[in-house]
């Protein structure tokens, strides 16, 4: 059985264009996860579906105004971006469909930058809008913007191995939201089962809106009086300015308590996921030095053909900024080893 699976895996890797099975395996796992996640989330571009599927309380701010514009700008750009970026890492497309690869790359950059704008618009309310969440959003936006900018600059300078490295970083930074979701559930369960109760604070208007949106009870006022007395007699004008503590519980029948469990856990989950992806992509880059060196020779040949003064080191390479030794591979590859002979 294992040999059959390996056989078809090898066939698939050859179709896609990978010459090494481990590279195809990593692409299949990580790009596949990103593609599957994005395809599954396309349904949330419909406002009604998003309202039903979002974490309890999120629709309170997102149903109107700036947050509505921000969330659908973010989803409407980052989901297509996540789908299209997968094709940027298919060797067969890069080799045989250069125009598509180049055009698709510019589309990915535009969509990513637009999605960053949407994320910044909603960060003060998303998952409770705590400082941990806001700083994570800003950090992720800056990291993705800088890395995709570095990727763009290096490909403009024909520094292909650096372009590959920075595009991989961009893709891994983007993908940390998937790992965040997995860790979020674990932490929300941990918060729920904590020996000491954990509390969040919501405005009464948010609780009432969430109850009504999720049809928790036919008599919302009676339920509020029972569960949150501070909100029971609050006038309509003061609903958004009157706050009440809510104990976190993922398994309670109260959607407000479910939402608080996710709100308290999201910031920690997001930072842990970002750290794992930040380290993970650097480990992968360090474990594939031969591929980086091969692509640097491709860079050398293309820069040499383009008349660059310092072929092989025209982009943002480390020796231009640090104390690394000058690159020593500035010699033509034998014809049979040249990437252009393939």
UniProtKB/TrEMBL annotation:
Record InterPro entries: DUF2306_membrane (IPR018750)
Membrane-spanning residues: 21-40, 71-91, 103-123, 135-155, 167-191, 268-287
Statement: the UniProt record of this protein carries the keyword Transmembrane helix: yes
Entry keyword set: Membrane, Transmembrane, Transmembrane helix
Protein name: DUF2306 domain-containing protein
Species whose genome carries this gene: Uncinocarpus reesii (strain UAMH 1704)
